[in-house]
Amino acid sequence: MTHQRIWAGALGAALLAGALAGCSGGGNGGSGEADGPEEVTLRFSWWGSEVRHKALLEAIDLYMDNNPHVTIEPEYGGFDGYYQKLVTQFAGGTAPDLTPLSVDWIDELAVKSELVVDLYTLDEYIELDAFDADFLERYAVFDGKLAGLPMGANGMVTLYNREFLERFDIPEDTKWDWETIHEIGRRVHEEDPNAYLLGMFDYRTFLQPFVNQRTGNDWIVDDQTLGFDAAVVEEAFAYYQQLLDDGVMQPVEESSLYPDLAENLQWQEGNIGMMFTLASTIAKVKSYTPDLGVSMYPVPDDAKTSAVLVNPSNPLAVNKASRHPEEAAKFAGWLLTSPEAAAILKDVYSVPVVQANADQLVADGAIDPTVAEAVEIAMSNPGNPVKGLSNNQELNQIAQDLLERVAFKQLSPEEAAAEMTARLNEKLGSMQ
Amino acid sequence: MNNQPAAGASASPRLRLPRKRRAKGQRIGLLYISPWILGFIVLTLVPFVASLIYSFTDYSMVREQRFVGLANYIEMFTKDPDFYQSLRVTLLYVVMAVPAKLVVALLVAMLLNRTMRGMGIYRTIYYLPSILGGSVAVSVLWRFLFMREGMVNEVLSYLSIPALNWLGDPQLALFTITLLPVWEFGSSMVLFLAGLKQVPRELYEASRVDGAGKARAFFSITLPMLTPIVLFNLIMQMINAFQQFTAAFVITDGGPTKATYLYGLMLYDNAFQFFKMGYASAQSWVLFVIILAFTLILFKTSNRWAHYEDGGDGR
């Protein structure tokens, strides 16, 4: 019995010690030295590649050297599961002080749930003048609130394999529209049955912009109704099927295995000529296909809007529950506006939005010229920002599923268009 | 039978323990089992009840939740085509995967029931896929094996069989996904093996005397004697199959055209892609009821085909 008592006592003591340690751990970042600035600990979380991790860690070290009262705890990993983890942390009250947001999360996290600070309220700690005011207003402000500081500028372009274009005598300065894609793509496939001008489409790289160009509207307009009718979507679906039938695109039975075209073996072997993609993906595509060029996303002459997607690359947001929002804002401001931070980050978040830093990096050759050119091309003719419900993941999944069923010929363009408008209308009705 | 009086004799002094000592013994017993009880309450019971409550709300984790009554259930049954698609796909998957897995498990168990040198090593080797089988790594490997340019098609080409689009063809993708769990037959195999060891040798000897061949002995002795284990394996594997997630998530992500959109994947999408936790909770309760119904049906019908030496009433 004595043994049992000893064990029970030891277990109790261990639990108590653990609990006390836990309590005391929560008090860090509290009081500092009486005459110095308050000791602050910030948690900064992000996702990305190894290059991005290294650059951010180096920048954090530099900031902590210059601001010894600030400790920044980095939390980083891959993109898979990041959103799920972040939302769970917000729900549990354990979200980091600073986190980048993907643009399609902003509606949920910043607008509807108001979980992040409106950075306009912390403008005394951030040099907002360094940013292009129009860019901020257009892409990072939602309902009058600045949801985050853009870590870079991103845009949709046509990315092509130079060797492929040369092989099929396609001039690099071709002005692409949907008609030329069909004509040239058909010719390419006739010349070489193993070659395709394009890999595959999704709702974001094709359906939304194609329809928006025809209507001039947003995908979902502000009153939460569809910005298009069934006839326009039917036209888009019919065009897509035509491209597949004529061998302009790789058969969907093959391409659907690779959601990321850069990993498609046919692309890597040089049998697919081009793709529509965001500038931020160019570095990855280049690792498979080094000789790439960029041009404007297809815009027909009669388009009512270019519908060229321009995005802030991951706006950096401050958690509303942060105990030190001012210090978090100071760090975010320094990270995205100071020349020394820009020199460390280079193009890990595409091209910096602060023009002076972008110019300096281009001059120093620190930014991949293809990425810089891609952003410049996209920004020269941007479409309306894709915001709010136009970015809703559930609505977009419906569009994506139907696009896929058209490609597999399970639905005719007419049936798919009717089903899409009906399902989106129903879903929008239940969201109101 | 001879042990019973002894057992009774050992039980009676325990009953005569002083009340204080008995209570103390109970407390210590509870202390020992408390990690499990705590784990069960916090990690199983509370989420179980909470999910039922959430199923009547529009809980989204980050926004304020509202009580919506039966709206989630009504939407599921009347407005969500994905629900019926995933239900259809999942039922097909269960119907294909469970019997296939049990047949393979039984065949391998019979092979490993022989007496030969090094049998322990073979049993361990055949159990290994079950340890690895459900992992993401093996699912990724599966994806590469069954790619258009993968090893399976490579082998087929040597046999002059045309290459198949295992994962890109909506007609074939579910079948390919089904092959993965069949590979993880280990736990069922071990149970079958234990069952085979219990079959009295005399029955086989008697059947041989009566002139029965091997096939007749299998269908008239082995299989009937194994039916209680078949029942157990069937129920456990069916429950697992209804909840399958990893294979569809990693290998095909539910595609192409939702041909492999298993119920677990739909639940995941609603819960963790769209954060419709209330709706996903309702869907998980529907899955629970479906599994319960199938389990009850199997139990109720088992007295027609599962044979117990003691007649099934435990005597």
UniProtKB/TrEMBL annotation, chain A:
Source organism superkingdom: Bacteria
SUPFAM superfamilies membership: Periplasmic binding protein-like II
Lineage: Bacteria, Bacillati, Bacillota, Bacilli, Bacillales
Membrane-crossing residue ranges in chain numbering: none
Protein name, UniProt field: Extracellular solute-binding protein
Keywords: Signal
InterPro entries for the chain: Bact_solute-bd_prot1, SBP
Signal peptide feature range: 1-21
UniProtKB/TrEMBL annotation, chain B:
Alphabetically ordered keywords of this record: Cell membrane, Membrane, Transmembrane, Transmembrane helix, Transport
GO BP: any one term: transmembrane transport
GO CC list: plasma membrane
Topology of the protein relative to the lipid bilayer: Multi-pass membrane protein
Keyword Transmembrane: yes
Pfam families given in the database record: BPD_transp_1 (PF00528)
Domain ABC transmembrane type-1: start-end pairs: 87-298
InterPro entries membership: ABC_transporter_permease (IPR051393), MetI-like (IPR000515), MetI-like_sf (IPR035906)
Domain of life: Bacteria
Alphabetical list of PANTHER family matching this protein: ABC TRANSPORTER PERMEASE PROTEIN (PTHR30193), ABC TRANSPORTER PERMEASE PROTEIN YESP-RELATED (PTHR30193:SF1)
Family: Belongs to the binding-protein-dependent transport system permease family.
Protein name: Sugar ABC transporter permease
Organism: Paenibacillus sabuli
